[in-house]
């Protein structure tokens, strides 16, 4: 007998038929004698609709947000998961399974105060464990928790993955299965590159980079938690037949295992390619070249909650003025420009330029640590396709390249092929 957390994403619970299909996956594990907690997302498209409603309201600045009260945003957008948790509990009951729904506040899943992008701080798993002992299946609304102000908080988009891994850690589950609309983690997004291959195993660190650099198959925070708490996490498909052979395998279920790097026997130099669209590039021209300038620019941006990503600073010719280029999410560009205008005098720069519609493509692999020339291969491959590189950042296990948005798909496929990722 094992203790398993099963998480089902939006497409997996998109309508009543799919919810019944999910219930069959749950039944399989219950029938095998396992203790099961289920975490659900909202029906696909629902959260976007709810966010759209909030954004369509008159703008009044409020707690944590310049446009609306983020606590009320959370009250609205958390509702999608409440619906699916109840529906799945009913579906399970109709199959004779003892199940009940739990909202984040009922467990409770305690978060910090950052409404809209809250972090889980503590989960008391004792109630859930007690109910396991009574043979009850817990169906938990993902994406939501209870903030210190006693109000509902949401965990940021894609946050149900994080709910699932955090619950798995809290109840010391043997496994956390993330069921989605693909049957595992691929060498790149299979929607962009049909030749992408499923990976049997991915190291936590690589998955962390892939998720941070745009592979939205897992929320970044869920991978961090899995890594810290050593949660055995599988990514697998909810569209597979729940009763097909091997689906209930307790050790090697079909899918991708996210695990420690020493569990991976055949290490590749490059494991995957990720991309993030909708990046904007901002350049400050003729910035004073003196100590404190970077702090003067990036401090206020951070205070405004704007996530600055790639930063490139040139060496000035005469030691007095230089150019500073960096990227922010396109959605934040107007706010970033407003913040920069305010500090123009104190920091001292001549002009601000900005360019929307950039993309960042990234090459990821722990094998890069011990291999030279990986970056040069990427630059040459992109040059051969006449794709212009606007900025580059590297770390031990990744190379990120900023390019013009329309070239995203071509760049991803080019890099995927140049590192031999489409070869079996
Ligand atoms: P869910 O609603 O189940 O949480 P998501 O849409 O958040 O599902 O994540 C699954 C999607 O992630 C897939 O449909 C796929 O297009 C995308 N994706 C991006 N990169 C990858 C990758 N490397 N491997 C698998 N899926 C990926
Ligand atoms: N429903 C939320 C979202 O769409 C959380 C999730 O699906 O993980 O972001
Ligand atoms: Mg998701």
What labels describe this entry?
12 helices, six-stranded antiparallel β-sheet, eight-stranded mixed β-sheet, Carbamate kinase, binds aspartic acid, 424 residues, binds adenosine-5'-diphosphate, VC0802-like, 2 domains, alpha/beta
Give a verbal description of the structure.
The protein has helices spanning 16-31, 46-55, 70-77, 79-94, 126-133, 160-170, 204-212, 220-229, 293-303, 333-348, 374-384, 408-418; strands spanning 3-8, 35-40, 99-102, 109-111, 120-123, 137-141, 144-146, 152-154, 175-180, 201-203, 233-237, 256-259, 272-288, 311-313, 321-329, 351-364, 391-395, 398-404. An 8-stranded mixed β-sheet has the order 3-6-2-1-9-11-12-10, with helices on both faces. Strands 14-15-13-16-18-17 form a 6-stranded antiparallel β-sheet. Strands 4-5 form a two-stranded antiparallel ribbon. The mean pLDDT is 95. Strand 1 (3-8), helix 1 (16-31) and strand 2 (35-40) form a beta-alpha-beta unit. It contains 12 helices and 18 strands. Helices cover 32% and strands 25% of the residues. The protein is globular and about 75 Å long. The protein has 2 domains: 3-262, Acetylglutamate kinase-like (Carbamate kinase); 272-418, VC0802-like, CATH 3.30.2130.10. 43% of the residues are buried. By secondary structure, it is of the alpha/beta class.
Q: What's the short story on this structure?
A:
32% of the residues lie in helices and 25% in strands. It has 424 residues and is of the alpha/beta class. The strands form 4 sheets. An 8-stranded mixed beta sheet has the order 3-6-2-1-9-11-12-10, with helices on both faces. The protein has a 6-stranded antiparallel beta sheet with strand order 14-15-13-16-18-17. Strands 4-5 form a two-stranded antiparallel ribbon.
């Amino acid at each position: 007998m094992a203790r398993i957390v099963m998480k089902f994403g939006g497409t997996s619970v998109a309508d009543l038929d799919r919810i019944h299909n999910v219930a069959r996956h749950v039944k399989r594990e219950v029938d095998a004698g396992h203790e099961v907690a289920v975490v659900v997302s909202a029906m696909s498209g629902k959260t976007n609709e709810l966010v759209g409603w909030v954004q369509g309201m008159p703008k009044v600045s409020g707690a944590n947000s310049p446009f609306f009260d983020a606590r009320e945003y959370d009250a609205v957008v958390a509702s999608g998961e409440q619906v699916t948790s109840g529906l799945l509990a009913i579906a399970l009951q109709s199959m004779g399974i003892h199940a009940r729904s739990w909202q984040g506040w009922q467990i409770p899943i305690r978060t910090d105060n950052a409404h809209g992008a809250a972090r889980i701080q503590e989960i008391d798993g004792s109630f859930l464990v007690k109910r396991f002992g009574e043979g009850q299946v817990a169906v938990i609304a993902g994406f939501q928790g209870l903030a210190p102000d006693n109000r509902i908080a949401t965990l940021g988009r894609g946050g149900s993955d994080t709910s699932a891994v955090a619950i798995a850690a809290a109840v010391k589950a043997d496994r956390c299965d993330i069921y989605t609309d693909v049957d595992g983690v691929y060498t790149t997004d299979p929607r962009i590159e049909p030749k992408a291959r499923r990976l049997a195993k991915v190291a936590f660190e690589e998955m962390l980079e892939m998720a941070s650099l745009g592979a939205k198959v897992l929320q970044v925070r869920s991978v961090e938690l899995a890594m810290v708490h050593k949660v055995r996490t599988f990514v697998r498909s909810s569209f597979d037949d729940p009763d097909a052979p091997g689906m209930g395998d307790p050790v090697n279920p079909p899918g991708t295992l996210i695990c420690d790097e020493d569990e991976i026997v055949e290490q590749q130099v490059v494991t995957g390619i990720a991309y993030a669209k909708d990046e904007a590039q901002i350049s400050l021209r003729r910035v004073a070249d003196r100590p404190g300038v970077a702090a003067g620019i990036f401090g206020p941006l951070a205070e405004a909650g704007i996530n600055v990503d790639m930063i490139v600073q040139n060496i000035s010719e005469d030691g007095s003025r230089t150019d500073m280029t960096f990227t922010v999410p396109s959605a934040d560009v107007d706010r970033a420009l407003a913040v920069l205008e305010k500090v123009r005098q104190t920091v001292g720069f001549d002009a601000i330029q900005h360019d929307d519609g950039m993309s960042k493509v990234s090459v990821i692999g722990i094998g890069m640590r011990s291999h030279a020339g990986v970056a040069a291969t990427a630059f040459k491959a992109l040059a051969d396709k006449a794709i212009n590189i606007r900025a580059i950042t590297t770390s031990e296990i990744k190379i990120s390249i900023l390019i013009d948005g329309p070239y995203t798909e071509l760049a991803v496929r080019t890099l995927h092929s140049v590192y031999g990722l489409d070869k079996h």
